[in-house]
Design brief:
Order of helices and strands: HEEEEE
Radius of gyration: 53 Å
Strand order of the largest sheet: 1-2-3-4-5
Strand content: 25-35%
Structural class: alpha+beta
Low-confidence stretches: none
Mean pLDDT: 82
Length: 126
């Protein structure tokens, strides 16, 4: 009857009996299981100390600078380059400006401009 058993069944029987023997064997034959160590606790990091925000300070008021009287005049006459122009301006300190300038145009004419400017009318050329 043993000879009539299929060879695959013999191998399966041997494998199962070996597995059962290993499972029932005491642990001393195969070494001890690794001991359990709990993971190390996370390191403690203190939170940054609280610093109150800087107090609010309103910006310093900006005062409009008062106009100061002035006057200037200049001119250029260079025969080598052909440059010929002049300008002058006078301000009274109340915001009123009067001036003039002259410039030599490319066609040979000289352009003369008189102007005045104030806070009401702006720049006005004559």
């Amino acid at each position: 009857l043993i000879h009539a058993v299929h060879p695959i069944m013999k191998v399966l029987g041997f494998f199962l009996s070996a597995l059962a023997a290993c499972n029932g064997a005491p642990q001393g034959l195969y070494g001890h299981p690794a001991p359990y160590h709990a993971p190390a606790p996370a390191p403690y990091h203190a939170t940054a100390p609280y610093h109150a925000p800087a107090p609010y300070h309103a910006p310093e008021p900006v005062y409009k600078e008062e106009a100061k009287p002035y006057s200037y005049e200049y001119g250029v006459h260079d025969e080598y380059s052909g440059a010929n122009f002049n300008a002058g301006e006078v301000a009274d300190g109340a915001g009123n400006v009067e001036g003039s300038y002259s410039v030599l145009l490319p066609d040979g004419r000289t352009q003369h401009v008189n102007y005045h400017a104030d806070h009401y009318n702006g720049y006005v050329a004559d």
